[in-house]
Amino acid sequence: MTVPDASTLSDGPLTLAEVERLRADFPILGETVNGHPLSYLDSGATAQRPTHVLEAEHDYLTRRNSAVHRGAHTLAAEATEVFENARARVAAFVGVRENEIVWTSNATEGINLVAYAFSNASLGRGAPASSRFALGEGDEIVTTEMEHHANLIPWQELAARTGATLRVIPIDDDGQLQMAAAEEIIGSRTRVLAFTHVSNVTGVINPVERLVALAHAVGALVVLDACQSAPHRPLDLGALGVDFAVFSGHKMLGPTGVGVLYGRAELLDAMPPFLTGGSMITTVTLEKAEYLPAPQRFEAGTQRVSQAIALGAAVDYLSEVGMQRIHDWEAALGQRLVSGLSAIPGITVLGPPPGVERAGLASFVVEGVHAHDVGQYLDDLGIAVRVGHHCAQPLHRRFGVTASTRASAYLYNTPAEVDAFLEGVREVTAFFGVVPTLYPQSSERTSL
User: Fold this and answer.
1) What is the C-alpha to C-alpha distance for residues 242 and 263, in angstroms, rounded to an integer?
2) Is the peptide bond before 128 cis (omega within 30 degrees of 0)?
3) How far apart are the first and last CA of the chain?
4) Which member of 54, 391, 401, 438 is catalytic?
5) Nearest 10 degrees: CA dihedral of 358, 445, 392, 244?
């Protein structure tokens, strides 16, 4: 079991030859779909796993499988060691301390953990240490119009439970946050600011440092959704200054069933727990319980051990390739996607126009053709994309559409795959008998 052979990787930008060698590490990329070689452009939803990650989980399950933090026997000790070692490697990957990393089932659970902990604090649980998290009438929770439902609904529910008010920072016609509005909305009543680092629909990259400064200036806590940034770009959560952040293993070459919540140590230790039960306690009587410090106080019950170990292997793989190199490769693919789509009659791209920095993804609407039909046509060609509202209905509503098609790239995708995808999109309107009325414009892009 090895990470990519360092001797095959250069110090400069990723090359096509290197990407082709990396592709050989991903068994599924050798599959065919509907008689065509698989072209997987849906990593924004779930990334594929290299052999290194698959073998890491298999090695644990066949050689060390046991309950962590519980048994005194050799297997249990070895399982605990590799489990905690994975935590340390993931912590280092995002620039924080290992006691600031909480294992969750996914990023959605991580955001809910924070929201419900704040709710418990609002009921007086964990006081006086937890009083800084308590919300009530007059307090405000701020999020944005571009959020994934996982970073919107938990805050809606927290507002409903506590009497706080939820406020939303709007976006402009290119999908960018309206920062002038953000400066007006984030104020003395703001207690929480929750926003995504990178939009999973438009590829917009938000100005984290600027938003953190606005929030911290008024004493608000910042929760960052890093699901579309942790897998694709260098990420130093400590340097960014956020108070909490979440990301998921399955989007970054790891398995499903494991996610990460980062929280500043002093905050995690002051927060009341969300899930309670075994493994997160020190003393239990029939009347009450006392809880372990973080991160264990938020890890009740049997843990997702093999998945965490596999995620540790995934960050090893990504680190060996180099996160800046991955980011640069994907950014070029993202520009190739949006430039190519913007040149096709009848296509409207959601988000920034070509030439503006974006993540390696593009969502678009085909005039007169439903997104699901677009996806089915591409699937017939062996091209896997995402269709629907991408768990971001308010964002689609802002653009006046109900659904879109999204192509998202990763370190294992090639320019040839992007070009084949673009050729498939060009064929869609003719296949469905639609005559476009929207045409690319040389001076300004077509809008909805």
Assistant:
1) 8
2) yes
3) 50
4) 391
5) 30
Closest CA to 167 of 188, 150, 177, 182: 182
* CB contact set of 67 (below 8 Å; sequence gap of 6+): 76, 79, 302
Q: Which amino acid is at 102?
A: V
Total Cβ atoms within 10 A of residue 151: 25
Q: Would you call 227 a catalytic residue per the annotation? A: no
Beta bridge partners of 263: 244
Q: Under a CB-based contact definition with an 8 Å cutoff, are residues 259 and 288 in contact? A: no
249 in Cβ contact with 314 (< 8 Å)? yes
Task: Please tell me the distance from the alpha carbon of residue 125 to that of residue 121, in angstroms, as a whole number.
Answer: 5
| Domains, the chain, with CATH or none | 6-48+323-431 (3.90.1150.10), 59-319 (3.40.640.10)
Q: How far is CA 174 from the centre of its chain?
A: 21
Instruction: Please list the residues that pair with 222 across neighbouring strands.
Output: 193
In terms of phi and psi (left: phi > 0; alpha: psi -120 to 50; beta: otherwise), the region of 277 is left
**E strands, 264-421, where?**
281-284, 289-291, 347-350, 361-366, 383-384, 386-388, 404-408
313-322 pLDDT per residue, tens: 999 999 999 9
CB 134 within 8 A of CB 118: yes
Binned at pLDDT 50, 70 and 90, residue 154 comes out as very high
Peptide bond into 353 cis (omega under 30): no
Dump pLDDT digits (tens) for 227-268. Answer: 999 999 999 999 999 999 999 999 999 999 999 999 999 999
Output the pLDDT for position 4.
72
Q: How far is CA 266 from CA 97, 162, 260, 293, in A?
A: 12, 23, 17, 10
